[in-house]
Each structure stands twice: as structure tokens, then as C-alpha cells.
Amino acid sequence: MRSWLLLLCSAGVIAAQSQPYGFGQPATAADTTQKDLTVFPSGKGLPPGKGTAEQGAAIYKEKCAECHNEKGEGRPGQYPALVGGIGSLTSAKPQKTVGSFWPYATTVWDYIRRAMPFDHPRSLSADEVYAVTAFVLHLNGLVERPQELNEKTLPAVKMPNRDGFVADRRPDIKSKR
Amino acid sequence: MTEELTPPRRRFLALGASLAGAVVACRKAPVPSESGAHMRAYGERSPHEKTVRVVRELTKSLGTGSSRTPLGELHGIITPSGLHFERHHSGVPAIDPASHRLLVDGLVERPLTFSLDDLKRFPSASRVCFIECGGNSIGEPGANLPDVQKSHGLLSCSEWTGVPLSIVLKEAGLKPEATWMIAEGADAARMSRSIPVSKALDDAFLAYAQNGEALRPEQGYPLRLLLPGWEGNTNVKWLHRLQLVDQPAMSAKETANYTDLMPDGKAQQFTFVMEARSVITRPSGGQKLAGPGFHEITGLAWSGYGKIARVEVSTDAGQTWADAELQAPVLSKAAVRFRYPWRWDGKEAVIACRCTDETGYLQPTRDGFIAVRGLNSGYHYNGIKPWRVNADGTVTHA
Questions:
Q1: What was the ipTM of the complex prediction?
Q2: Please, where in chain B does CATH 3.90.420.10 lie?
Q3: Which of A100, B70, B229, B380 is 20 to 30 A from A85 in CA distance terms?
Q4: Of the candidates B113, B189, B192, which has its C-beta nearest A24's C-beta?
Q5: CATH class assigned to B54-268
């Protein structure tokens, strides 16, 4: 009896320690679903869906080309190019594009879903995002026109600059008086 | 005449009475009040003060772009909230604080949602700290921007109040495998950044107030993440979710942007800290000295590594340096005001400042910066900025 009481007491203490103030509401599955946009390089977080560059071409023409131009060449000084620049990163004028710089295909998918089209972000369906991503990657020569991208095949696309990033090594500049 | 015999006060009263009687008939102009303007429920600055931010919006999505703090016109270390720099990636959302919720989920024992009222019940803390955009001075090493608003205006400093994030995370109960935290905003594009949990538990806080009042919409109303000393973009505005995870998401803003492309073609990533930096704000580019004689050289210094330990000023193009006075209080990861008395002889002079922080980090020269990171790293530029005081008193980039 006494040991039961002791156990109950210590359980109470642990509960008090674990949520010291007792503020906030338990989150429901709906709370998470409503905000669940995060996609990881492994593909974790990608919703089911599919699309090809072929399908993406029409969506791109209607919703993306005004800024990024017909073949992803961008509008200099205004809207960035999505293609080109591979091999330029060590040059005097590096071109950082999806093809030359972005390390993960999942990042392209995630950014298109969140932020594109620029004036109507989050307006594309999952299938449309797969299709437009496929088209942008196709413009960069990374996927074939009829190739289907889905939650399984997208993370497998290897981006040219996949190994182009290193951890922060600052303070890397040693100045002298 | 009787009028001459009447005492002045009497005469005034008599005049007043006769005016009151005649006002309808004569429509004489009322006597102007000498007691000043009416009071206002929310104050504004004098109409004579015109200093503003320089706003640059993208045409395709108005509200997206940047606005720069007019550092050359300001005093002390606190940026007025209405002049705090802005950098928005998808406009400024209109958020009703009554329905706003912060979701804390992922690798936690108890996924929770918090209302603003919930968060305000926790123990609060205030801290003065700077926020500097990781892209402040993009292009500066190559372009020599002409004034301090253009060259350094994505830096501001406020007193922020909120709840330490460690308290909120303890409430949800971190699982041991939680090493990263995805912070997401409620702007149209749901901008998100991956933040190491170590920073979240160190000095991060959730700010709901700035300079004594609720955050401005442009600063994340009603809630933003505050990561003292870290690049502005990680201080996620309109914060609505903290997702605890075991790896970074590699979002666009931590891969395509805010990474530092080095001369060897590799890009340094997760370069969070804004390294020590200083700049002379007066005299600075675009200003004009009235003439030879006394001029105070003043400016700001700040470091994401901690406190500023020393600021030196040169008035001879860097040949000799002398210590400037630091205005107390000198706060960690906050802007510090420095001052240096100078007698200008009226001849062309190049003035500059450099700072050292408490870790011993010395601000690099422009050439020293370029020697390591090249001209294409873009973000996190912190080189010394010299100004040329010309013989006619005008000030330009040197």
C-alpha cells in the first residue's frame, strides 16, 4: 500500500516536472496536417502524387514563363534563371540556377509548392507540383520528358551540385592589426 | 480718452466682451491659441522629420522585397520600429492574433499548440539585440555602394520581449533525438528555416513585442523567432510552427540562398552567425560637412559572436588607428554606438572604423575578406567601409 502511494506521488512529481506550467493545448492530428509542408531530402514529407515534364510544360507556360521565360532562362536583373550555369561556380561570374546550384530535387519541389507562382503561392495541386518540377528538371537535362516523378522517384534524382556544400568553417578570415 | 485711463487687463476683458457680442455680426478671425496642438492617442514624429526607409518591391508580388534603415540619420542604438529594415519573401500577411496558434510538434513528448495568451503567461524576458539580413551589403565588395543606407541598411537594433524558447520546448518535452527544429512562418509562401536545437536551447526566444509594444506587422506580428546574433532570415516572422526533427529540411533559403559560394566552387552552408562589423554613420556617404573644425565621427558596431570589445577609427586612410569611445551599455549581440572626436582641417581625408569583439575577432578589410571568400560569396560581407571626405565637405565611398 505504502509503496503504491510512493509510486503515485513520484509519478505526480514527474508529471509536474515534465510540463512545468501546463500552458497550451494538446495538438491534434489535424493541427499537424493543416501545417505539414516540410519535405526532407530523403523524400520524407512528400505527399502522394505524380507528374511528367510533358504535363508540366503546359502549366509552366501558363503560370511560370512570364517571369522565368520560356526555357527557364529568366529575366536578367528581375527574375532568376532556372537553367544553365553548370560548371560556372568557380568562374568570375558564377550562375546559380536550379541546375547548377540547388543540391536536392526535393528542395525544388518544396519551394515550388510553397512559393510559386510568386503571386499565387501554394495554389498548385501536388500533381501539378510534380509536373512543374519534372519540367524544370527536364529543362536542365536531368529527367526525360515522359519520365514520371512521384514521391518515390523524385528524391532519387541526383542534382549536379549535390556535393557542392560544406559546413560553416567561419571564422575563416584571420585579420591582423 | 477713457481708453487711455483703463488698465490693460480691463481693456482686454472689455475687448473680449465686445468681440463676443460682435462675433456673429462681424465674423472676426478667432484669436490663435498659444497652448499648442491637440494631444494624440498614438504619437507621431514632427512633420519636419522626413527620414524614411528606402523601399524596393518586386513588381510581381508587391510587399515582397526589402526596405533599408536610414542609419546615417539615426542616433543611439535603438532603431525606431517604423524604420526597422524589412526583407519579405512573400509579402506581409494580415494575421488576427486571436486565431493565431503556434504548433510545436515532431520529436516531442507532448505536441502542443499555443495561443498568444498562452505564450504571454510564461516567464518573459527582454533583450536588446541587432538583426542583420544575411544579404546586407550583397554586392558591396564589388560595387562600392554610395551611402550607408544602401550599404548597411539591412541592419537594425531593437529591444525585443517574449518567452525564452527553452521554456516552451521544455513544456513540450524534447525527445533526445531532436537535433533540428524547422521554424515556419505564416506568410503566403510559408517560409521555413532549419535551426539547430542547440541554438533553440541557448538564447533563442519567441518575441511578441518590440521596443515596448506589440511587434509591427512587418516584423512578424504577432510572433517571431528571435535568434540573437544570427542572420535575419533565421529570425522567422509570423511564426506558426516549430517542428522538432533529426535533420535539416534543406529548404530553398538554406541551400539556394543564404549560403556562401567560395572561390573553389563549394558553398559554405548554415553560416548562421553575423560576424563582427562596424560602420561610420556620420560623416558618411551623401552627407556634407559644413566646414573645417570639430566634427564627431560616430557609428555602430555589432557582433553575432558576443560583445564588442573595441572600435578603432582612422582618419588617414588606415595608416594609424585610435580607439573610439564606446557608449554604455555595451550589450552582447546588440549594436554599440561609438564616438570619436575629430578636427577636420578641410583637406581631403579617408575615414574608416574597425571593430574587435570579445572573442578577439577583428573585422577584416575589404581586401582581406575578398582574399578568403572571393567576390561571389554574396552573403555575410563584413569588410571595413572607408568614406572619403572631400575638400568641399561632401562624403563619398572611398
A1: 0.92
A2: 54-268
A3: B380
A4: B113
A5: alpha beta
